[in-house]
Amino acid sequence: MVGHRAGRVSVSLDNQTCHLRLTHTRRDRGVRVDTVAVLLEAPQRLTLSRLELVPPGDEDVVVHVEWSGISTGTERLLWSGTMPPFPGMGYPLVPGYESVGRIVAAGPRAGREVGERVFVPGAKCFGAVRGLFGGAASRLVLPGARTVRMDERLGADGVLLALAATAQHAIAPPSGVAQMPPDLVVGHGVLGRLLARLVIAAGAPAPVVWEKNPARFDGARGYQVLDPDADARRDYRCICDVSGDSGILDTLVQRLAPGGEIVLAGFYHAPLSFTFPPAFMREARLRIAAEFKEPDLDTVRGHLARGRLSLAGLVTHRCDASAAEEAYRTAFSDPACLKMVLDWSNMQ
To answer: Which of 2, 34, 69, 98 is the most buried (most CB within 10 A)?
Structure first.
């Protein structure tokens, strides 16, 4: 229990109910509230560490995290030390931007209620320790406005909301640009599967999905998975690449129809280049899809609510957060692991 003193924001933990109670008094001084977090001290040096959290304010909520996902894109680069220069980059850091938890305390202007289950896209609440993106911890403090209410029925699958919104952002054209859903998706990992499912959810024809690893051929829902060498088509109108392969552009240009578009929706740690004449002959277009926006998340939630989209079958591995180091290594080395989820229930 964190004790209450006059003139402070008091946060106390009831060991029987695991509920935090936030008492708002004077805000000029704070109390110490801590958490257990995944800490990347340096590339490939991962530990669980107890860190002090910033005191919650009137617009903040305190979330007890139930599950957090491990990203095999950006988090793999942070773990391996191959992440290109990035704003706020540096070690030590707390990774994670795919967390689901229960609100156990809410400030009077937080806009959220105690007891709500929410998705948390990361937090910056660890003081001097960087949060990149700060979601892999047992307890988080963040503005209520940054949390997303979620359907209770999603459970641990809710960690996929950010990835689904990222996939939707890759599909959605920029303002003023005609809609051209991908008819080829490159990569049958979680992001590639979500892309294919979202294309179908939007009512567009099912895309073809390329995958070179036979271990990842299974799991298609209403679309075809092919090895690129088994696909003779060279008339794709829109190719969405989520492979992260920096050397793939020449291959993709050769498969485009005239006027076709390549969407780069992965994250690439090495420079990309392509041979100009084939792209010139096709008048190829290149688009980069970055972070998702709120409308992307709204679209995903709408598809889920209407039963057009399912997140089932994408979380393949779960691990107690106490074994985080092993979980991260499995997530990054086992091709059968589509999505690893850390369970924080024993760490509160």
So the answer is: 69
